[in-house]
Amino acid sequence: MTTLTSPPGGAAIRHPAPPATTGRTGTPRQGGTILAIPALVWYAVFMIGPVIAIFVIAALHWPGMLQPVSFAGLGNVRTVLDDPVFWDAVRNTAVQLAVALPIMIVCAYMLGYYVAQKPPGHRVIRYLLFIPGLVSTPAKAMVFYAALSPDGLVNGALDATGLGALTDAWLASPSTALACLIALDVWSGIGFTAVLFAARLDSVPDDLGEAAQLDGAGHWRTMWRVHFPVIRDYVGVVTMLQFLWTLFGSAQHVLLLTQGGPGSSSTTLSFLVYQKAFIAADLGYSQTVGVILFLAGLVGLLTIRRAFRQNY
């Protein structure tokens, strides 16, 4: 395309138009979609596929991997809902989440805030807080077993301080087995979560805290009234991650320490899925509980996301 200009008293001069340029407002390139295809295929096969398989197996009567399969329909649902062990697992999982999650998030946030203030030795403190995240699950379970066994460190300390009447078989008592598992969840997750909070709080401008302190706010008010609203959405993300880890990952702690006992006093939903699939060889029952666990996780994530969304 060309343009015509007329100088005063002269002939028109033809000027070539500048070449067309494609900026950010132009037609978007389509190469990104092609590059994403392998990741989308991987996600569909290894993420969406197993989720669909859970719902399919939940509708089957499948008494073992090499046994014949028949259609059960809603029979597995009725069997699960009529099983008192399932309701014990629901209660134990609810107690575990209601106790472990608030303690872990609140204490981890306070620890993270303290580390973010860069006290003397704060780098060493970060490493020390991260240590439980570097220890394998069997090793952590062995530490708690050594501390909570009948002749372990806790009972030994109680005897040494004249409180022998308080000694107990902590992991074998129906009243304390679940509490021991909750203590392990909190201990193994609080340090790693505190490091995450400290890293996020490091990005908050120092001017906010300094302005609050100039106005007379102490560390407690600055921590909860100034810094917490700024990273509220990040707190929600970390809470969702810990919620999922506690909901789905508690089976390994139960397996290593209590086997769900005594009775079903420490059986959780995630351990019930394992127990019915690999011990009782009832895959239909197991995956029915898996569907319930999946739906509970989905509802929990949506609830946490709504609770921690920013108000501005």
Automatic annotation (TrEMBL):
Subcellular compartments: Cell membrane
Membrane topology: Multi-pass membrane protein
Span list, region Disordered: 1-27
Superkingdom: Bacteria
GO biological process, one term: transmembrane transport
Keyword field: Cell membrane, Membrane, Transmembrane, Transmembrane helix, Transport
Pfam family, one: BPD_transp_1
InterPro entries: MetI-like, MetI-like_sf, UgpAE/MalFG_permease
Keyword Cell membrane: yes
One Gene Ontology cellular component: plasma membrane
Domain ABC transmembrane type-1: 90-304
Record family assignment: Belongs to the binding-protein-dependent transport system permease family.
This protein's name: Transporter
